[in-house]
UniProtKB/TrEMBL annotation:
This is Hemolysin. It comes from Oceanobacillus arenosus. Belongs to the UPF0073 (Hly-III) family. It is a multi-pass membrane protein. Pfam families: HlyIII.
Length: 214
């Protein structure tokens, strides 16, 4: 902590994530517009906005210096946005890649779980760290049951980036859940490294959606 930013590395890395998410949103909308599909445009807007919300909430929480009560609520919002990002990331795959009854079912299931997750985080924030991590990862890897339907539309390249994104989030989640002390080096620790893995997860999924879904 310094006099201006409470957690400089964590705050600035995810501020960068928020800015990159804005750029990514513009790029996706521009490309989706060429398809003249309202559904495609809507899907990428949902994904892009979910990234902006997650990284903005995280940046604000880690940067702002405020009273403990305010910080506690910012932390609740920060953690709740993880569910929003998961649901937002699923949206282009559900509505563009699948674009059938199965896609819509998955869309509503994931968004229902995200709503429950946000409620869970806002009402029982002191839940065990491992439980939150397990819920995040369980929602994220739900897609594995739909790889048979997604693979033909995404192709090998798309599946590679989809899986890389999932692995980056998973490694980050495991690091966050177990807080390994051996990762501590000067101002870097498990939390800072967790943030980097989350950025890479979003980057891989953006590449997948921009390059192979649209």
């Amino acid at each position: 902590m310094n006099n201006y930013i409470r957690e400089p590395i964590n705050g600035l890395t995810h501020l960068l994530g928020a800015l990159l998410a804005v750029v990514g949103l513009v790029l996706m909308i521009t490309k989706a517009a060429t398809t003249e599909s309202v559904l495609a445009i809507t899907a990428v807007i949902i994904f892009g906005v979910s990234m902006i919300l997650l990284y903005s909430a995280s940046a604000i929480y880690h940067m702002v210096i405020a009273k403990d009560r305010a910080i506690a609520w910012l932390r609740r919002i920060d953690h709740s946005m993880i569910f929003v990002l998961i649901a937002g990331t699923y949206t282009p795959f559900c509505l563009i890649s699948l674009n059938n009854t199965l896609g819509w079912v998955l869309f509503f299931v994931v968004n229902g779980l995200a709503l429950l997750g946000v409620t869970f985080k806002l009402t029982w924030f002191r839940s065990p760290r491992w439980l939150s991590t397990a819920i995040y990862l369980g929602m994220g890897w739900l897609v594995i049951f739909f790889t048979g339907e997604l693979a033909p539309t995404l192709g090998t390249g798309g599946m590679v980036f989809l899986i890389l994104g999932g692995l980056a989030y998973t490694i980050g989640g495991i690091i966050y859940g177990f807080k390994p002390k051996f990762l501590q080096y000067k101002n870097w620790g498990f939390h800072e490294i967790f943030h980097i893995f989350i950025l890479f997860g979003s980057l891989f999924h953006f590449i997948c959606i921009y390059g192979y879904v649209l």
